[in-house]
Fold:
Amino acid sequence: MTNTPISRMQNPAEFVPEMADISAALFKATGNRSVPRTTMSLVHLRAGQIVGNTYLTILNTAFLRKAGETEDRITAVSSWHDAPYFNDAERAALALVEATLQPAPAGRERVTDELYAEVARHYDQKALATLTIAIGQISFFIALAVIGKPTPVTSLADEQWD
Structure:
């Protein structure tokens, strides 16, 4: 693996310092423990895979490894539909992020009433709101990741921007 920096832009927080407050608020809102942190990382990993972003994929894979997740579960996120490694609540969360980030079939909603009901079956109102915010959180970071192309890291403490 090469250590050649690949970031396209400087750290946006250098120019928009309010970004640190936005990021901190999003992490605080999703860190209320109503949804397991592992589930959040699975959802964020799947989001990174959907948009084809190395930064988000490496970062969230590292989070899952640090949490003690097996390589089988991590690897199977991209094919979770037929993988035996996920419980029903995780499957509902993965289906929700896919529905949110992928185009809907012609004439259909992205998040159908059936999908919403399935997710609500596994998550109470606070957890459902938190999961929704977590999907919004990763969507915020998707824009930064695909436009700015920060250097892939395994920790948010690592240098991400050249």
